[in-house]
Amino acid sequence: xxxxxxxxxxxxxxxxxxxxxxxxxxxxxxxxxxxxxxxxxxxxxxxxxxxxxxxxxxxxxxxxxxxxxxxxxxxxxxxxxxxxxxxxxxxxxxxxxxxxxxxxxxxxxxxxxxxxxxxxxxxxxxxxxxxxxxxxxxxxxxxxxxxxxxxxxxxxxxxxxxxxxxxxxxxxxxxxxxxxxxxxxxxxxxxxxxxxxxxxxxxxxxxxxxxxxxxxxxxxxxxxxxxxxxxxxxxxxxxxxxxxxxxxxxxxxxxxxxxxxxxxxxxxxxxxxxxxxxxxxxxxxxxxxxx
Length: 291
Prior knowledge:
The chain is α/β, with parallel strands linked by helices.
């Protein structure tokens, strides 16, 4: 198992925010970085964990520094993990040419296109490799009590990882929430570009495996999902929250199981995320305690 190398550590709301890196087998032996917040009660026992997936152009640092999550995570006794949003330094032609594809935009899929398949496997990195490496390191995190959230591209990732885990019967995550997620990537310009670039089967493959609006219709059991988006979001045409809400209602999920909330006047930025961060941390704790 890969060994963690500590890069930095700061005391934060009584706990610690630490950055690590390790050699990722899943990402083709590239270095993978992540931040992890451990509340002070983790000194005595393993704690529940909330994994946050970042959006386009972000790194493992953006939400850890600007998201406004840690005060409530500390109060609730929850660890938080902030992975990177893509592999770094793969050396693939074109990976740095566009802000919405490639470096900083891994889209939380396992690439099948030959050009990208060796390194761009963020789905498996987040769902399997990162928890395994953290557990093996002895950090006091209880992955049997894990929830997931994300923003924008990361909101797409959170929804897809959560729904896919339910479809597999493994139920890795106890709940899911998202800020401004790309809910229907197979009909959004960002998602179409990503699927056509990363997947050998293009949009058709992406629609089948990585489109939350279609995945929700395949779920048979209970779900716990919260989505917030801003009515002044300049990227709302990329997000399609109404399509997801309609698909959830058609699948039989009411507003207690799938909540999609329009927040008046808010945009796509971390000002929006930080405004409602407290609700999402507390929501994850509340929803998880019900299961």
